[in-house]
Amino acid sequence: MTWRNWTMAVIGAWFVISAWALNPMHSSTYLWTAIILGGLVLIGSLWELSDKVYRASVYYLEALFGLYLGLSPFFYSFTRDGWATAVTVILGAAVLVGGLWQVGSRPSNAASRPHTPNHRVAS
């Protein structure tokens, strides 16, 4: 599962960097959408890489963020910039698919809640 987390982390980082480096419209709306949602995708991916417990909720949130990122060109009317629209839609769709793929590929040894050691009661 880690390669998908790394891929989604890179995409999240790309959105954060692209907010300044590739903001084609010089739009503050795109800037903050890319920073916030890209940052959330990055944080969620890194969290899952460092955590040993499977949490489907994080992947559902990442899928939701990917959907919003993919639709953001249409929400904020920057479809006139074809390359920016295409890259944003494709990478948003990749985050959406990656998040749903992670939900569907729960490892067989993953716990749904944190591990708690067995405590023996003195008799």
Major β-sheet, in short? none
Instruction: Look at the structure and give the mean pLDDT.
Output: 79
Instruction: Please count the beta strands (DSSP E, at least 2 residues each).
Output: 0
General shape: elongated
Radius of gyration: 18 Å
Helix fraction?
55-70%
Order of helices and strands: HHHH
Number of domains: 1
Terminal-residue CA separation: 43 Å
Strand-residue fraction? under 5%
Uncertain residue ranges: none
Number of helices: 4
Structural class: mainly alpha
How would you explain this protein's 3D organization?
The chain has 123 residues and is an all-alpha fold. It is 70% helix and 0% strand. The radius of gyration is 18 Å and the shape is elongated.
Give the helices and strands, then pairings.
Layout lengths: L1 H20 L6 H23 L5 H20 L6 H23 L19
Task: Record keyword descriptors for this entry.
mainly alpha
Short note summarizing the structure:
With 123 residues, this protein is mainly alpha-helical. The chain has helices spanning 2-21, 28-50, 56-75, 82-104. The longest helix is centred in the N-terminal third of the chain and has 23 residues, at 28-50.
